[in-house]
Amino acid sequence: MRLGVLFSGGKDSVYAAYLAKKAGHELVCLISVISENKESYMFHTPSIEKTKVQAKVMKLPLVIQKTKGEKEKELIDLEKILKQAQKDYELDGIITGAIQSVYQASRIQKICDKLGLECVNPLWKRSEENYLDELLEAGFKIMIIGVFAYPLDKTWVGRIIDKKFIEEITALNKKYKIHIAGEGGEFESFVLNCPLFTKELRVKKKIISGEAHSWKAEIEVE
Predict the structure, then answer these.
(1) Which residues of the chain have pLDDT under 50?
(2) What is the domain range of residue 92?
């Protein structure tokens, strides 16, 4: 199938695209929704603007839709951009990086049904215990660009997901019930390299801001 990728630039959307391509589908375009509301229920990532750089190294066109991010109303903007991408790129379906969020998955599915698009969810109900290991084995280099839950603090921002990271986040899962893959919004990520990229992205600048257990990094990449 010719598929568009609902794309945030984080590990889930990129890995979902990787798995879909590995399964024989054609990646036709990337679709990013930029929300003014950083607490959006559907679209939340500190690095959404950097998807433009990722699109270049993936050699795929990027379609961008802005939204105010108002609950439920933001779905109108999502439907608008999916309909436009469907027309412009003759899409058969949409790839999502949904793992456990029924709220997000059900709403995307409803829009896809309305537009006659297949909704492809390669990560749905993925085992959190093995997920990060899968990413490393597949050759993904992923940076943490935001943390939003106790006891995560400033020191976690900018870290690369590696074996040590997995060991530490697994220990926190056992003690504080933090989702190992950050599915509960505990942390946000940005992919610097993977098999879909033509080259690894380099972080030129990183500015960390926040307080308590809510920190994020504004990054410049090339």
Answers:
(1) none
(2) 2-120
